[in-house]
Specification:
This protein is an all-alpha fold and about 650 residues long. Among the domains are: about 5-165, no CATH class; about 175-295, Tetratricopeptide repeat domain (Serine Threonine Protein Phosphatase 5, Tetratricopeptide repeat, Alpha Horseshoe), CATH 1.25.40.10. The protein has helices at about 25-30, 40-45, 50-60, 75-80, 85-95, 110-115, 120-135, 140-150, 150-155, 175-185, 190-205, 210-230, 230-250, 255-270, 275-290, 295-310, 315-335, 340-355, 360-375, 380-395, 400-420, 425-440, 440-460, 465-480, 485-500, 505-520, 525-545, 550-565, 570-585, 590-605, 610-625, 635-645. The termini are far apart.
């Protein structure tokens, strides 16, 4: 959505009914109309289609005569971003904790409340002034459609924006196309949105003057769409173009540049370029700390992003440090009961869960839940998610009855909050299925996955990627049940959906071939399995490069197939390739590397090379004990295997 400046460019329209634009009535006549000025006109026109309070924000920023309300603009901007104008107003009327909502709030509640109360009158005056100055400004009816009705009602008005475009127009052509693109994107029409953003870029090149801000906005938003579609290379290209434009506009040390560094990092992460993603996230953090200060909430967000990256790659101690720093900042900024604090507890809990420290994980998840219940009430979707997370920890602990209780609570809340046919309800049934599968109750797991699939299809359509995910899980259960032909059939359905949605060369297609290979492996059809694994590998190498961790996984699968065929030399070669890639991508100490050492160790054991097997399994154990406690099942099993091997080595039998 086009805005008066880069900060407002990504503000979405609020939900229906949150805030509306007043018509030109007596409430607008309480203040004398301002004289139209080019600055105000430009700001208002550029804000066309934004949330109404964001329009008022643009008016204030452009120097309108409501300067006494300038102090209210941070609050108004926050309200526009969150779509919570009514809630903000009620808080202010009660002299509530506005500091929980507004960074740097000065605590002057009456002034902020006055600013919010004047919004309808100021907007009405704004519209009147510019309608008088230029009849084409009547297309601000579009703004009403955006503020008061769903996007479906706004889209038919979009062509009327052309009335504002021309040699004397107030809105650049590029801004018009950006705005229309935003409407299409809100409606879930990403291809039409991309086409409009591209027209905005072309219009900006052809137009005189400086349209760099619109170009950056277009590139950024196209990048968002490509990333959501899994077209990571295209997303990266757009984000890098946006970053280049913003560096020319603002220099290297600007908040918008930091945000673009973050987006580039997301694209690298999606590509599996771990080191490049880290570099961009660190650059974002460096700029934010320099421009905003080390204790700013945006810094906390960047610390969370880095923490997530380290967490997902098994560097749990570093992830914990970053998550704790982030939590300290948000506590200092918002207090102990803010929802960002709940998010911090949830992130830390996830790390403890990954480390197998389940008691600590439960404590963090419970703290998160308590804050969410206090802030959002008992029947909110986020509360349901927190109950599910607690259930996941209980499942990992082997406390299945408690896990089942948590999943049941999550399901009941999801139904109450969103209805029986919402995708979140489908996720709840999937959680039940995962638990039953974990317990070996495959028939019940299959029943739950089927329920999840039915809801997902009804809610999202037969060709949605979540449907493909459900197919994949169902096929996995059939494989466990030994019904390999059904498993193959359902995996083929999954493959069909993924190809239709993402194309033939997407990494998710590689995953489908990989899963089909597993089934052939289970059936003893090792040549067919190798063919599927090889197709998966070719797609991944083309999409991700030779050094991505997923490539290591594919080599590992190929090794397993050769091992099953009895071709142990080829298997060892593939295992070693997998290990080399993992070391280069993840470092020497990582849980995935422990698994590779274990696989090689078992191969040596099968070949009767017991000393080599012991060496590999000991390396595996040394890594596992870095990440998991001694009583963790995996640590326990590898330790037993090492002890058994030592009984087979003459020199170790009495050692």
């Amino acid at each position: 959505v086009a805005g008066s400046g880069s900060a407002a460019a990504d503000v979405p329209p609020p939900p229906t009914g949150v805030a509306t634009i007043a018509s030109s009535t007596s409430s607008a006549e309480a203040l004398p109309p301002p004289s139209p000025s080019p600055d105000v006109a430009s700001a208002a026109a550029a804000a066309c289609g934004q949330a109404p309070i964001a329009v008022l924000q643009a008016y204030f920023d452009a120097g309108g005569d409501a300067n006494n309300c300038q102090a209210g603009t941070p609050l108004l901007y926050r309200a526009a971003r969150c779509g919570e104008a009514e809630r903000v107003g009620l808080l202010l009327q009660a002299g509530g904790q506005a500091s929980l909502l507004v960074p740097g709030c000065d605590g002057n509640y009456p002034l902020h409340a006055a600013a919010l109360a004047q919004a309808p009158a100021c907007i009405a005056r704004l519209v009147d002034a510019h309608r008088a100055a230029d009849p084409r400004f009547d297309c601000l009816e579009l703004k009403n459609a955006c503020g008061e009705t769903p996007v479906d009602s706004a889209i038919p008005h979009a062509p009327s924006l052309q009335a504002l475009v021309g040699p004397q127009g107030d809105v650049p052509v590029s801004s018009t196309y950006n705005f229309i693109a935003g409407l299409y994107n809100e409606k879930g029409l990403p291809d039409k949105a991309v086409a409009m953003y591209q027209r905005s870029l072309e219009a900006g090149k052809a137009a005189p003057g400086d349209n760099h801000s619109d170009a950056a906005t277009s590139c950024r938003n196209i990048g968002h769409i490509y990333l959501s579609k899994g077209e990571n290379d295209k997303a990266l290209d757009m984000y890098q173009k946006c970053l280049e434009i913003e560096r020319k506009m603002f220099g290297d040390d600007h908040a918008d540049v930091a945000a673009s560094c973050k987006n580039v990092g997301y694209a690298y992460k999606a590509q599996g370029e771990y080191d490049k993603a880290l570099a961009m996230f660190h650059k974002c953090l460096e700029i934010e700390e320099a421009t905003l200060g080390e204790d700013h909430p945006e810094v906390a967000t960047s610390l969370n992003n880095l923490g997530y990256l380290y967490d997902s790659h098994g560097d749990f101690d570093r992830a914990l440090d970053l998550y704790r720093r982030s939590l300290y900042i948000v506590k200092s900024a918002w207090g102990n009961e803010h929802l960002d604090v709940a998010t911090g507890y949830n992130n830390i809990g996830h790390v403890y869960h990954s480390k197998g420290e389940y008691v600590k994980a439960l404590d963090m998840c419970q703290r998160c839940l308590q804050i969410e219940k206090a802030a959002l009430g008992e029947n909110h979707a986020s509360v349901a998610t927190s109950y599910a997370n607690i259930g996941h920890v209980f499942k990992s602990k082997g406390e299945y009855d408690k896990a089942l209780e948590m999943y049941q609570t999550s399901l009941e809340i999801s139904k109450a909050a969103q209805g029986d046919d919402h995708p979140d309800v489908a996720s709840c049934y999937s959680h039940f299925a995962g638990l039953y599968k974990y317990k070996g109750q495959y028939e019940r797991a299959l029943e739950m996955y089927q329920k999840s699939l039915e809801i997902t299809k009804a809610a999202l359509g037969d060709d949605h990627l979540d449907v493909a995910t459900s197919y994949s899980k169902i096929a996995g259960v059939y494989d466990f049940l030994g019904d390999h032909l059904k498993a193959l059939d359902v995996y083929q359905k999954c493959l069909h959906v993924v190809k239709a949605a993402l194309g033939d060369s997407h990494p998710s297609v590689a995953t489908c071939f990989n899963n089909i290979g597993f089934v052939h492996d289970s059936m003893g059809e090792y040549d067919q399995a190798l063919e599927m694994y090889q197709r998966s590998l070719e797609i991944e190498v083309a999409a991700l490069g030779h050094d991505h961790p997923d490539i290591a996984t594919s080599y590992n699968n190929i090794a397993c197939a050769y091992d099953s065929k009895g071709e142990h030399d080829k298997a060892l070669e593939m295992y070693q390739r997998s290990l080399d890639i993992e070391k280069a991508a993840l470092g020497e100490i990582h849980p995935d590397i422990a698994i590779s050492y274990k696989n090689i160790g078992y191969l040596f054991r099968y070949r009767g090379e017991y000393e080599k097997a012991e060496d590999m399994l000991q390396k595996c154990l040394d890594i596992l004990t870095v990440f998991f406690p001694e009583d963790h099942p995996e640590v326990h099993h590898v330790d037993i295997d090492i002890r058994a091997l030592r009984q087979l080595i003459p020199s170790r039998q009495f050692g």
